[in-house]
Design a protein that fits this description.
4 strands; GlpE_sulfurtransferase; Rhodanese-like domain-containing protein; single chain
């Protein structure tokens, strides 16, 4: 699971938290350095606050040949516990 918040959102608490064990890689970084973070033989789930940024990220990564799933609705619709 990857969270596509930018660094400020992730570190300064401009959100409601993040999923436990989710790795934070900002959208611009994961798109510009995708081979550094992702393996085309694995499936990844991408999430953001509302699902909009993660959807854009997923579409771009799919075009690059990655197996990507957008977490629709984002963290705003997640009902489990979040880490701050």
């Amino acid at each position: 699971m990857y969270n596509s918040y930018n660094i400020e959102q992730y570190n300064k608490g401009n959100n409601n938290g993040h999923l436990p064990k989710a790795k934070n890689i900002p959208m611009n970084k994961i798109l510009s350095e995708s081979e550094k973070y992702l393996d085309k033989s694995k499936e990844y789930h991408i999430i953001c606050q509302s699902g909009v940024r993660s959807l854009r990220t997923c579409k771009a990564l799919k075009k690059q040949g990655f197996n990507i799933v957008n977490v629709s609705g984002g963290i705003a619709h997640y009902r489990g516990d979040l880490e701050k």
